[in-house]
Design a protein that fits this description.
By secondary structure, the chain is α+β, with helices and mostly antiparallel strands. The chain has 3 helices and 8 strands. A 4-stranded antiparallel β-sheet has the order 1-2-3-4, covered by helices on one side. A 4-stranded mixed β-sheet has the order 7-6-5-8, with helices on one face.
């Protein structure tokens, strides 16, 4: 079986100019902060702080938010749902699969639950993931609801 992989954070919702616009916004905040500091206004530090936070958010969006994925391999299901939540489930360890409208819940052999949320994924990708899971469940004799 070949690997099935879908990115959960669709890049088509993002314009190609969005990183440049975010960079311009961060730069503008810092410039406004410097202008306020020159005018002896204490709020200049607030503007500069917001500009720096803006740069961190730009870095986060560029390096982390585009790397969320759902992958089905021959022996496991892997998902990176956020910067801190990564799941790997062995197919022989799955007892049951519950397919919900925007999430998939796996009941494992030891009755533990693992849920993968698909709320920020495009509708087409959700349908593709669910159909592929049904196909795998049939192939591996896993109960599906």
């Amino acid at each position: 079986m070949e690997t099935f992989k879908i990115y959960l954070n669709p890049l088509q919702k993002q314009t190609k100019y969005q990183p440049y616009l975010l960079f311009f916004g961060a730069f503008t905040y810092i410039v406004l902060g410097i202008i306020n500091l020159i005018d002896k206004n204490v709020f200049g530090w607030v503007w500069i702080s917001l500009g720096i936070i803006y740069f961190f958010l730009l870095y986060y969006q560029k390096n982390y938010s585009t790397k969320y994925f759902f992958e089905i391999q021959s022996d496991s299901i892997r998902a990176q749902q956020s910067a801190f939540k990564k799941s790997e489930i062995k197919l022989n360890n799955i007892k049951e699969i519950y397919i919900k409208p925007i999430s998939i819940e796996f009941i494992l052999s030891d009755n533990a639950k693992e849920e993968i949320l698909l709320g920020n994924t495009s509708y087409k990708n959700v349908i593709d993931i669910k159909s592929k899971l049904r196909e795998i469940a049939k192939e591996k004799n896993i109960k599906i609801n």
